[in-house]
């Protein structure tokens, strides 16, 4: 398929490995956005981060741009960014609400996003505006399938 | 104007904007605005910028990256840009080439840093075919083991930008404003700036490079020229650029902190 031709040509020419791990880990009870962020719901608030699939594809994170506590976030909209491999990549919020806490550890240890994407690498905590928004997110099985399909297309 | 001889059947459209001597901050604002508010693909070529300017990546720390006293003394502007990556000093000898694309503009390309970087190297591989030993080494464009272009990217939900500052020519004195960075690629092997970079002018005429780049782009896209003044922006979108000039005060405070740090460490050694 022509779409893969350039990738394999580039890979062999530059000896770049295009292979990622065959699977990305997911956490069973979390909810997932198609832009590869997760939400862990706890009552009316949620913790948000990027998934294992995302951190693996992004490479080593060297900097995280965090929002201010008190900032509003909107489902599907950018609230911050990570820097890896000379790129800034937007982080989009899986839910709307108000930022009540940010992970200050990421200022000195941005690599936590890679090492522990679902625990110590959490990024923000949000007081949700509307928990109905969670219905539009994927569960872990749906998200795993989504990642497989996305990787297979490229 | 379409580039003659291109196989344009079924290729996505790429708007080509050719600039000359546009100030770096204005270029960055244009790029970020097109990234966030346009739904078209763009290739921007800025042939040189008027005044020497230091441009740091989003997370750049002046104290670590710059010889601040010289920068302040010579009043060199310092910009923090919206993309990642390292620090460059740009001037009239720099040629800027930027791609701003929808995530599905290149079939089969995943919208992540490394795939985008690989794809861009295919464009320039074509440009330098028969001219030099072009390579992509640890995210730098090199001829042999000498860097001649610095890359950076910004990736949003459905679009990405990949931009490069090419060292067509440079002033040796300007390199002195930059410190040896802490985060450096392995292949640099602690070489000084002058031992690490090369001038593109030693390999290819300036206009030839630009023409060959446009031609290479034309093998992936249907290229259409657009004048800067003719670019229309959607009226309903709010946009505030994040690239900005560092204020003199911020740099002066950094310089003071740096001198205090040196004095303290010297007094501790007594």
UniProtKB/TrEMBL annotation, chain A:
Subunit (UniProt): The glycine cleavage system is composed of four proteins: P, T, L and H.
Species whose genome carries this gene: Abeliophyllum distichum
Name recorded for this polypeptide: Glycine cleavage system H protein
Listed NCBIfam families: gcvH (TIGR00527), PRK01202.1 (NF002270)
Keyword Cytoplasm belongs to the record: no
Cofactor remark from the record: Binds 1 lipoyl cofactor covalently.
Taxonomic classification: Eukaryota, Viridiplantae, Streptophyta, Embryophyta, Tracheophyta
Sites of N6-lipoyllysine modification: 86
Segments forming domain Lipoyl-binding: 45-127
Automatic annotation (TrEMBL), chain B:
Keyword rRNA processing found: no
Domain BPL/LPL catalytic, residue spans: 39-225
Assigned keywords, A-Z: Ligase
MF (Gene Ontology): ligase activity
Keyword Thylakoid set for record: no
InterPro entries documented for this protein: aa-tRNA-synth_II/BPL/LPL (IPR045864), BPL_LPL_catalytic (IPR004143), Lipoate-ligase_2_inactive (IPR053264)
Top-level lineage group: Eukaryota
Pfam families linked to this entry: LplA-B_cat (PF21948)
PANTHER family found in the cross-reference section: BIOTIN/LIPOATE A/B PROTEIN LIGASE FAMILY (PTHR43506), BPL_LPL CATALYTIC DOMAIN-CONTAINING PROTEIN (PTHR43506:SF1)
UniProt name for this protein: Biotin/lipoate A/B protein ligase family
UniProt source species: Abeliophyllum distichum
Lineage, broadest ranks: Eukaryota, Viridiplantae, Streptophyta, Embryophyta, Tracheophyta
């Amino acid at each position: 398929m022509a779409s893969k031709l350039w990738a394999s040509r580039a890979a062999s020419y530059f000896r770049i490995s295009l292979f990622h791990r065959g699977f990305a880990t997911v956490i069973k009870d979390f909810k997932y956005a198609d832009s590869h962020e997760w939400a862990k719901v706890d009552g009316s608030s949620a913790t948000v981060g990027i998934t294992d699939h995302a951190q693996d594809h992004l490479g080593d994170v060297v900097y995280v741009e965090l929002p201010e506590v008190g900032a509003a976030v909107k489902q599907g909209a950018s609230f911050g960014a990570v820097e890896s491999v000379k790129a800034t990549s937007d982080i989009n919020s899986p839910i709307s609400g108000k930022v009540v806490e940010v992970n200050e550890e990421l200022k000195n240890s941005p690599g936590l996003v890679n090492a522990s994407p679902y625990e110590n690498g959490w990024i923000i905590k949000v007081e949700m505006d509307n928990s109905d928004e969670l219905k539009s997110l994927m569960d872990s099985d749906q998200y795993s399938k989504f990642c497989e399909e996305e990787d297979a297309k490229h | 104007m379409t580039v003659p001889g291109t196989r344009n059947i079924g290729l996505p459209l790429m708007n080509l904007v050719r600039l000359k001597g546009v100030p770096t901050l204005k270029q960055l604002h244009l790029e970020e605005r097109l990234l966030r508010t346009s739904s078209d693909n763009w290739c921007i070529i800025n042939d040189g910028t008027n005044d020497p300017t230091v441009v740091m990546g989003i997370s750049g720390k002046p104290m670590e990256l710059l010889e601040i006293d010289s920068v302040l003394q010579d009043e060199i502007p310092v910009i923090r840009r919206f993309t990642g990556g390292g620090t460059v000093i740009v001037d009239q000898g720099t040629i800027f080439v930027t791609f701003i694309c929808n995530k599905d503009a290149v079939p089969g390309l995943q919208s992540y840093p490394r795939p985008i970087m690989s794809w861009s190297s295919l464009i320039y591989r074509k440009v330098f075919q028969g001219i030099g030993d072009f390579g992509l080494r640890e995210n730098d464009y090199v001829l042999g083991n000498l860097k001649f272009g610095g890359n950076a990217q910004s990736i949003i939900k459905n679009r990405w930008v990949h931009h490069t500052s090419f060292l067509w020519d440079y002033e040796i004195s300007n390199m002195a404003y930059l410190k040896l960075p802490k985060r450096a690629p392995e292949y640099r092997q602690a070489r000084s700036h002058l031992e690490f970079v090369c001038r593109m002018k030693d390999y290819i005429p300036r206009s030839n490079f630009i023409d060959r780049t446009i031609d290479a782009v034309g093998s992936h896209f249907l290229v259409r020229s657009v004048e800067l003044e003719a670019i229309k922006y959607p009226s309903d979108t709010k946009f505030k650029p994040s690239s900005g000039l560092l204020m003199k005060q911020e740099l002066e405070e950094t310089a003071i902190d740096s001198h205090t740090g040196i004095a303290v460490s010297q007094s501790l050694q007594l």
